[in-house]
Amino acid sequence: MMIRNIPARFTKAQLLRDFGAHGSSGIDYLFLPVDLQSGKTKGMAFVNFRSKAQATEFQEVWHRSRLPNHGRGKVLDITAAQVHGVTANLAQFTDYTLESLRWHDALPVWIDEYGRASSDA
């Protein structure tokens, strides 16, 4: 899923916490793109789910809603992404891109079935 209108100040950890705290389990991949020049997020995220049913439920709950503690800002716009699956999402990155993302603490996060994240989300 592609999520638009995420506040620039939000981190991967905040998104995972907020989505998880409101019953959005099943996320197994999260990427929060950043501008490599400024280091700021681009206001969007990509998430993948273990099942289509979990993705559908997430969209039904979060589409056109606001993130907690974000005030009256823009509502989230959630649509289907073009790439699906953890492996396919990770395959989009080159070694050079991953090194640049590592430098900005912006690597994608994948989460195992026990809820353990691949990096410091």
Structural description of this entry:
The protein is of the alpha+beta class and 121 residues long. The protein has one domain: 2-Layer Sandwich (Alpha-Beta Plaits). It has helices at residues 12-21, 52-62, 86-90, 95-103; strands at residues 2-4, 27-31, 44-49, 77-79, 109-110. It has a five-stranded antiparallel sheet with strand order 4-1-3-2-5.
Show the helix and strand layout.
Elements lengths: L1 E3 L7 H10 L5 E5 L12 E6 L2 H11 L14 E3 L6 H5 L4 H9 L5 E2 L11
Antiparallel strand pairs: 1-3, 1-4, 2-3, 2-5
GO molecular function, one term: RNA binding
InterPro entries: Mei2-like_Rrm_C, Nucleotide-bd_a/b_plait_sf, RBD_domain_sf, RRM_dom
Keywords: RNA-binding
